[in-house]
Amino acid sequence: MDLDSSNAGPQKITAPPVVDSQHGSVRPLTTEDLENVAALFLTKFRHRRHHRDRAIARTAQYMRELYLDGGESKALVQINPQGRLGGFMGVLKARYELNGTALNAAIIGPFMTDSNTDHGWAGPQLLRTLHQGEYDLYLTDSANRTSLAFARPMKYQLLPVHCLEWTCVFRPGAMAAAMLHRKWPGLPRLALDPCARAFDALAGRRSELPAQHSSSHRVHREPIDAAQFAERLPMLMSDYALRPSWKDGELPRLLALAAEKRADGPLHFGGICDDAGKMLGCYAFYGQAGGVANLLQIQGSGSHWGATLDALIAAAREMGCVGIVGQTQSRLMPQLFSHQRVFFRYAGGTMVRSRIAEVAEAVRSGDIFIGGLMGDRWTRLSSDDFGRV
């Protein structure tokens, strides 16, 4: 499509058609698919063996709420010629704007195929069917290397910086123990915690305080709630050319869904203000004492990214978290480099596809708000164990 400067609203998105071929068909997800899709998800991403029936039921219920309760399903399933589930692609509808022009976006979440029933056709079929929809851009922030192999030939642009995860360590021993316990919940804490405390005592009890970044204004940190965060975040991201367009209470509803995630503790909000009370930055993170905090979203204005990051780290430390992890983004990298005990690793591919030249150029130049709430890592599918009580 050609991009103009009008402010017309997005066109209605019709469901992708049912696509048939000799290798199977692709159609929108239905209620009848949920149990099989949930079972495939747990096999591919959780490797769960215990309490499997309960986990399938809970995963299916969450998928129903995530993909079906909003009306017409955007998620897709591939059915092989024998009538069995061959693959699944989770899709959430979103709205963006580029310099005032409304755009329809598809956020791609879990993308999986069943190796027992699929012979290499399900993945390409799902992507091709998705691309037949009336979306202006397609994005994901959690693609694994298999998904990258499917998507790159289909002209998805990779955002290398956003593919990384940063980790700031407060107490090395306690953080290692927390990560081991999360991976193997059966490990006894009585064996891990004393060793962690002893290591941290030898290492100097606590890591160095975070660097304090200079700012042209005196700033102070203050806690805020979800409603205040939803009010202020859009104002702070207004300098991105390609940014979300949340309307009619959409952002508060999204934050309420994000707050259901359980793996890393409750969702907390905070911000920094100048002496006049003007909000200069805000953040949202999951955290609890003794655990690893997980950043959902951080946004600063102008030269205040560093002070916003300092406030985030201070809030997590004061809560008793042993460290914090978060997705990297271009405007945050200089501030991350100035902190001690910050490490980076590859966490998942962030990619965008669009046939609109102006959108592709904004992506290439990094002038896009992506990740966090404009991705799928905020969903329970990204981390939660559906088999636990």
TrEMBL record:
Domain of life, source organism: Bacteria
Region (Disordered): 1-25
Designated name of the protein: GNAT family N-acetyltransferase
Organism: Mesorhizobium hawassense
